[in-house]
Amino acid sequence: MSDSLISLLTALGDDELILGHRHSEWTGFAPHIEEDVAFSSIAQDEIGHAAGYFGILGTLTGDDPDHIALGRAPEDYRNAVLCERANGEWAYTLARHWLYDTADDLRLEVLESSAHEELAQLATKMRREERYHLIHADAWIKRVAHGPVEGRTRLEGGLSRAFGEAIGLFEPFEREDDAIKEGWLPTASSELRRRFIDRASASLDELGLPTEVRAGVDEAAEFVASSSGDLIASGEEPPGQGTRSTGGGGRRGVHSDDFRQLWDDMTRTYREHPGATW
Amino acid sequence: MDVYEVFRRSGHKDPFEHCGSVIASDSEMALLMAKECFLRRREGQHLWVARRTDIHSFKDESLLEIAADKSYRFPEAYRDVVAKREKARARAREVGAAAGESNR
Asked: What's the CA gap between A163 and A218, in Å, rounded?
């Protein structure tokens, strides 16, 4: 059994599950009824993708996909911190949706040629749906960026908060070197991160959004462990000293307080009623 | 924001049918919203949206009511034509025969 494959699938599935859960919290609260339906549908898609990853994972480990999704301790989740952040306002959600789906498209593109055939097929299937998610995110971002100043300002705020942490999506997962050697992941996270920064920066330039929204993102930065054990990008001060979080730690199970609240909500029914079905 | 009417077809050869409406800022956004609101459960395979104000109709619907008996516009009104024709042919034969007799 390949531990590096398990580690890769866990990171991928957890990103989708946790972001899907955050997206689903907009159900009933989105800015208008049509978007409420649209965003809830996207949330379901993301959770469906998690089910796809956990399905493969289940065949490798013999574990039940529901248990993988809801039966783990908080420190066993490997999603990037970006995905677990509280929704805040719509502008932040939108910024994160756009950054995540841009990143996910790059990731799925390389996974389509994964040496693990089932994963490669799943990536192709998911990419069709993610292409639509990206169109949805792009449509929103464009309209808000070119719209009245209040929306634009809020979007800039959301992007400033989310851009740095989006880099954490490319924090190497455990045993990544092995996964690359085996061909499970054909392209290293560091290379994907470079592609992501290029692509997202070019899009934001095209929209005329100020470069400050991605200030502090060091394209050459490597994730290293700080003295506190948190992963930070080298070349930056540790978080809390006036610089922005680079969203590291998630791939090693180090999460923010926001995750604890999410985990509590998400897994409560599963924990309180073991074996319940519906 | 405008109201867009949404039309959907279920198969390649089926006609587009009105299925509802969405409120959106422009046609691209309307399509995205319509896809999620009216096509997310595979209810069809294609969508149109049209701004409600671009759809034209009669102001006074009563103009469309049909006032008099228009049965002559329906094929049912002509069902007895065959019987009438047969009757006319029989009569023509009768008249023709009678004329032959008197000429002899």
From this structure: 11
Residue A216: the pLDDT is 66
Which residues form the domain of B96? Answer: 68-103
| pLDDT per residue as tens digits for the range A237-257 | 444 444 457 789 999 999 999
Please answer yes or no on whether A143 and B29 come within 8 Å at the CB atom.
Answer: yes
Domains in chain A with CATH codes: 3-270 (1.20.1260.10)
Which residues of chain A does B32 touch, with a Cβ-Cβ cutoff of 8 Å? 38, 135-136, 139
> Quick one: B32 and B75 in the same domain?
no
Tell me the CA distances in angstroms from A37 to A100, A106, A130, A192, one per residue in order: 20, 26, 17, 32
CB–CB of B24/B2 below 8 Å?
A: yes
In a domain, B59, yes or no: no
For chain B, what is the domain count?
A: 2
Q: Are residues B50 and B6 in the same domain?
A: yes
CATH number at residue B22: 3.10.20.520
* Structure token digits, residue A99: 């950054």
Return left, alpha or beta for A216; rule: phi > 0 is left, psi -120 to 50 is alpha, else beta: left
- Tell me: the pLDDT tens digits for B7-63? 999 988 999 999 999 999 999 999 999 999 999 888 899 999 999 999 999 999 888
CA distance A32 to B31: 15
- Cross-chain residue pair B23–A32, CB shorter than 8 Å: yes
